[in-house]
Amino acid sequence: MWKAADVMATDQVHGLRPARGFTLIELLVVMGIIIMLAGILLPALNSARARAYDADCENNLRQLGAALHEYASMNNDMFPLADGYDQLTSWYGTQQHLITALQDIIPTDAPTWFCRRYVQTAGIDPDAEIAQYRIGYFYWGWDRRGNTVYPAYTTSTTNAWDAEGYTNSLGGIVLASDRFGTHALAGDTRYYQFHCGSQTVVPATEEGTFVLISGGSVKKIAP
After folding, report:
1. Where are the domains of the chain?
2. Which end of the chain is more exposed for a tag (fewer CB within 10 A), N or C?
3. In which residue ranges of the chain is pLDDT below 70?
C-alpha cells in the first residue's frame, strides 16, 4: 500500500509540486490590469457608439430631405404644412400633416422618423409616438406670420426656423432638425443636444444638432 510519504517522494522524483492558488498580490495585479484595459477601451467604445448615432441620424435626415423634395416636386414646389402655429402643433408638437403627406414615401413604421439617440435618452416608444402623430425630429419646412401658418417652397429664403431666431446663413432654409432645447434647471444656459459625443447636456455653443438644409445637405451646428 502506498503511503503519503511515498507519494510525496515520488512527486519530488518526477519534479512535481503541490498545486497552489493565486496569492493576494497576484490577484490585485490581475485586477489592476483589467481596470487599466477597461479605462482604455471604454472611451473608444463610447466614441464608436456616438459616431454610429451620428451616422444614423444623418441618414434619417437625408431620407426625410429626399422625401420632402419628392413631395414638393408633385405639389407646386411646396413643402407640407405644419399642424398649427404654436409649439404644441408646429415644429415642437404633432406632425399629422407631415406624416400623412410623406407616408407613401416613408411608411409610418420606418425608423427614419426617429433619432435613435433621442429615443434612447428620452426612453420613448416610437410606435406609441407615431400613433399620436409625434416624430423624433423638429419640422421647419413651413412659415409663420403671426398666428397663421404659411407654406414654404423650394425657393423660399426664410421660414419657421428663422422666425424662431435660430442659426441662419446655412446655405438654405432648415427643413428639419434634431430635437433640442434649454436645460430644465433655472439659470442653466446649457442645451439638450444629442450629437455632442457621449454628452447630451452641453453648452449652447457646442455643435451637437443635425439640421437638414433645403437641397438635401445635412450639417451639425449649435442652434
Report:
1. 22-221
2. N
3. 1-22, 26, 37-46, 183-187
